[in-house]
Amino acid sequence: MMRTRWLLIVTFLTWGVVAAPSLAWSQISFGVGGDNVEAESSLVPFKIMMRGAINAPARDDSLGYLRMSISDYHATYDFDVLTVQAVDDARITAWAILQQYKNGKHNLILDGPKELLSKIGQAEPRTPLMITGFLQQRRKTLRLTKVEIIGMEDLTSPLPLKEKEGEEEKVAEEEKAAE
Questions:
Q1: Most exposed among 30, 73, 105, 142, judged by the fewest C-beta atoms under 10 Å?
Q2: Number of compact structural domains in the chain
Q3: Which residues contact 135 (CB under 8 A, 6 or more apart)?
Q4: Domain membership flag for residue 164
Q5: Do the domain assignments include residue 83?
Q6: Is the pTM of this model over 0.70?
């Protein structure tokens, strides 16, 4: 009887020391920065596209403003965001992208080619821009791939500009065919 009791205690302790920690470790994600790219701790960059106006007062229909900084120029800019989307992943929401930067919580550090950085640096106040780049949440860095000055009508358009231009050409062709 005594031997059975000790055998049960040893078995229980062995299971507790050996098996339980391995079960706990199986619940932890081992990827760098977690398992989802939109997490604040993620090191995995994802492509985003933002439309808004630089150094403009906030509009009623805006999602908020970002404070963007370019360390090379020692400059900071406010960007009133009207639309933002993850280009390659529709499941990432605007809120997930903007949560740690919105309304000046943290600066979004801009990085990239000098010509793209200078487009932002030289933009006049209230200039509508479309900024595309790879966002790395943990480092709070946006690596620019494209900066365009857009018209006011394109500022809140839900379609990417290339698709919209294609639609305008189709409408013009249809009008010519109707004549």
A1: 30
A2: 1
A3: 45, 46, 47, 48, 97, 141, 142, 143
A4: no
A5: yes
A6: no
Structure tokens at 161: 């500009």
- 112 closest CA partner among 81, 67, 68: 68
Please give the chain's pLDDT, 179 residues, in tens: 666 776 667 676 676 666 655 554 444 444 444 456 556 666 688 999 999 999 988 888 889 888 999 988 889 999 999 999 999 888 888 888 888 887 777 889 999 999 999 999 999 999 999 999 999 988 899 999 999 988 755 555 554 544 444 555 555 565 556 55
Domain-embedded: residue 140: yes
Neighbours of 116 (CB within 10 A): 20
Exposure class string for 117-144: b at 16+ Cβ within 10 A, else e? bebbeebeeebbbbbbbbbbbbeebbbb
Flag whether 60 is in a domain.
yes
DSSP bridge partners of 49 = 85, 132
Helix, strand or coil for residue 78? strand
Q: 50 is in which domain, residue-wise?
A: 46-156
Torsion of Cα atoms, 139 then 122 then 78 then 109, to 10°: 0
